[in-house]
Design goal:
- By secondary structure, the chain is an alpha+beta fold.
- The chain folds into 2 domains: 8-97 and 111-192, no CATH class; 212-363, no CATH class.
- It has helices at residues 8-27, 41-52, 61-64, 66-70, 72-75, 96-100, 117-139, 158-164, 212-216, 234-240, 247-253, 262-265, 292-296, 300-306, 316-330, 335-345, 350-363; strands at 32-36, 81-88, 107-108, 147-150, 169-170, 176-177, 185-192, 256-258.
- The strands form 3 sheets. The protein has a 4-stranded antiparallel beta sheet, with helices on both faces.
- Strand 5 and strand 6 (176-177) form a beta hairpin.
Length: 376
């Protein structure tokens, strides 16, 4: 793919186009845009260390496609710059702390309460890319531009890229934090071969001495600041992990049945987070405040109907029942729960049945004491 050799006039036009991208993105519901050069050489060693430790668990694709993560031009040929976009998702009044402290309720990660963000953000980034192409044809009439949008479904180191683009800093919990918006947001990217002027501002890391996110983690999933052991993370265990959940993590999972937000909920910077006005991110089917037992009694057809267009559907009905069984095992003693667990076991898969057995053992042990969190 031929590279660009822009004239001073064309560089001025690209700078103006970058300003237009900001406007288009806001019109499409994005809160922030930044452009980086895509050079991730400083991240390569950190990624290799993380993979060498086996912290990716069963996510083999993290290792198999690591070169594309480290070198964006290998993912999209000719990439010169990467446009990073931020879209806030926190639903209004979902009372995450209240639900976590209600052991009969099901806690679902706040990002998954509404429609699946992947398609929504990708479609909007594609619209931005189309507008960029139209403008690029005027600036470079003899050379077609190439753009490609990504949203958390390709080997992209989105947080380091967003940090380079000036959208915030990577916190000790490995999530991106914005000084004015906290961390309740999605990220998306447009890889482009256009030589845009790139961000020169790097957000100051303002985590300071705070380690609240590390200390609150129920499963002690952070070996050290800025490093996550996915194998211990509840988000990984309940979503990415397709097999049994190790017994040592079950009791401390509490009522978290799809993901975990503890490290975000406690972060002081999230006092600045604003509720999302995006209609598609608002909770559906009462999932922000549902009883564990109600969800566990869904049959597969109900599960598929109520999770249509939702990120929850990716774990499948079996994973859903597995996670809910653990939640019911951690719930207060209830004859109704015991009856439901025994009834569902008759038709459960081998995987789910084993978790039901564990839950029954918890329910039938009146002396049980559930630890609040593990120690590393």
């Amino acid at each position: 793919m031929q590279g660009y050799n822009p004239t001073p006039e064309q560089m001025l036009a690209l700078a103006a186009l970058a300003e237009k991208i900001q406007l288009w993105a806001r019109e499409l519901g994005f809160q922030q845009i930044g452009i980086s050069d895509g050079n991730l050489s400083s991240e390569a060693e950190r990624l290799e260390e993380w993979l060498d430790e086996g912290y990716n668990g069963t996510m083999a694709w993290m290792a198999e496609r690591q070169e594309m993560r480290k070198q964006p031009e290998k993912l999209h040929e000719g990439t010169r710059c990467i446009i990073s976009a931020r879209m806030d998702y926190l639903p209004d009044s979902t009372e995450q702390i209240k639900i976590l402290k209600s052991p009969e309720k099901a806690y679902i990660s706040r990002y998954a309460l509404g429609r699946d963000y992947h398609k929504l953000i990708r479609k909007r980034l594609a619209k931005v890319a189309e507008k960029i192409n139209a403008e690029a044809c005027i600036i470079f009439p003899d050379q077609p531009a190439h753009q490609r949008p990504f949203v958390d479904s390709a080997p992209v180191l989105e947080r380091p890229l967003a940090e380079k683009a000036g959208l915030g800093w990577v916190g000790k919990h490995t999530l991106l934090i914005n000084q004015y918006a906290g961390s309740w947001f999605f990220l998306g990217e447009i890889f482009t071969d256009l030589p845009f002027p790139t961000n020169t501002f790097t957000a100051e890391n303002k985590c300071g001495d705070c380690e609240a996110c590390l200390k609150v983690c129920p499963t002690a999933a952070f070996p050290k600041p800025y490093q996550l052991d996915a194998r211990r993370c509840i988000a990984y265990l309940t979503i990415e992990n397709k097999g049994p959940i190790p017994q040592e993590y079950r009791a401390v999972m509490g009522n978290r049945v799809f993901g975990c937000d503890d490290c975000q909920a406690i972060c002081p910077w999230n006092k600045y987070a604003q509720p999302s006005g995006e209609k598609d991110f608002q909770p559906r089917h009462g999932l922000a405040n549902s009883d564990l037992l109600t969800l566990f009694l869904w049959n597969e057809d109900t599960f598929l109907k109520n999770t249509e267009g939702s990120a929850i559907r990716r774990i499948g009905f079996e994973g859903w029942q597995r996670n809910l069984a653990i939640g019911l095992g951690n719930a207060p003693h209830s004859n109704e729960i015991i009856q439901a667990l025994r009834s569902q076991k008759n038709t459960a898969s081998t995987l789910v049945a084993e978790h039901i057995d564990w839950a029954l053992a918890q329910q039938l042990n009146p002396q049980r004491k559930r630890p609040r969190k593990l120690q590393r």
